[in-house]
Amino acid sequence: MKFISSLCCTLALVTFSYVATAQTVIDQVIARIGGEYILLSDLEEQFALSESQSNDSLPASARCQILDQVLVSKLLYNQSKLDSIEITDAEVESQLNARIDRILSYMNGDINQFEDYYGQSITATKEQFREDLREQILVDRMRGTVVREVKVTPAEVKKFFADIPQDSLPYFNSEVEIGEIVVLPIANKATKKTTIEKLEGIAEMINTGEMTFEDAAKKYSQDGSAQGGGDLGWTKRGKFVPAFEAAAYNLDPGTMSGVVESEFGYHLIKLKERRGNTIRVSHILIRPEVTEEDIEKSRSFLDSVATLVKIDTFNFSYAVKRFGYDKVQSYNNDGRMTNSVSGNTFFETGDLDPDIYFAIDDMELDSLSGVMEYRGPSGDNLLRVVQLQSRTQPHRATLAQDYAKIQTATKQAKQQSYLSDWIEGKIGTTFISVDERYHGCPAVQDWLADSRQVGVRP
């Protein structure tokens, strides 16, 4: 029996979205898998989220599919504990901060808008979701561990493609691959000096007792931790960039650093507590202002680099590594951009950023655009030139033209089948109990039927 038909959709992962839609329910345990419990509120929150993302009201039976997904997630989470899958506090904190920063970037950095939407402060939101995110990461890691060794051969790819009925072959719109050389405009020395002096003035106010570090962070700091008084939470070594980490670990509890420069700007750092190799720090971050003159200087530099590529002084890949900004995703892929939706390097032209779309509209292969300004995921103003590296015409899928996509689809199908078999086997050796009101769900009956095979009581 192939298990868990809804597995391909999601593993009931927690997102920040449901805060605004979740309904209040009287909590009770509705299922148990090993040492993990599923609460009625877990199911209702997921149902409310799914309904909020649907154009139509969901039928009551949708709860059966959602419960199936939650059961899968809890089974993987339970197994991750049994297998001692590890995750550090730093990893959790890093992903929490990244998600908060990403949400804030969608809101143009407006903390008040964030708090209005979530109904609480950034610090409270992080506290609410920290353990949920830890579980989500462990579920993902356990799943990756299970399917890690799954590979496909060329023969399997050909068979997978051959088994697709001719009239069911996907039709691909025109797609392109885009390379980019990205430059981060740097503030000039005078602006940096002004920023350092401002932080030194803030430090003086803190040292004289004119204002507390926490109040200063709320007033002056330019990152998402400001609302929480600059508190970055507990973390171990390896989370922070080297300059920041070195300064933080050299402090005594209750003391504050001088001005520290990092790739993010300039900081004042306060060590709040230390527990062995784990510290809790707060900071005040101020980024030096990048002026129009700074941007134009970087624009001229990037234009010169593009010209040297055009006349074959060096190739595009070398230009990316030698002159490109190493904090963008494309830097580690020879400048080639990755489609965040598909995970590959192909973009339908309609999905491109408008500036890129119009820049490549009449470009020839391997040619470069002019310099374009854009805002990066972390809110930085960046500059880039793009290269059109490939272009396909609209076509029905073929093995010759779309091998990479078909290979990916083949591998995903094989992983799905392997994971389904693995889950079925684990059900037979794991204690499973589900509230009787859900026994009518077909997917739940599969879970209980397999558990009965080894005498596990539903």
Automatic annotation (TrEMBL):
Signal peptide: 1-22
Pfam families per UniProt: Rotamase (PF00639)
PpiC domain: residues covered: 173-273
Superkingdom, natural source: Bacteria
Enzyme Commission identifier(s): 5.2.1.8
Entry's Gene Ontology molecular function annotations: peptidyl-prolyl cis-trans isomerase activity
Keyword Signal: yes
Alphabetical keyword list: Isomerase, Rotamase, Signal
Isomerase found in the keyword field: yes
Protein's name according to its UniProt entry: Peptidyl-prolyl cis-trans isomerase SurA
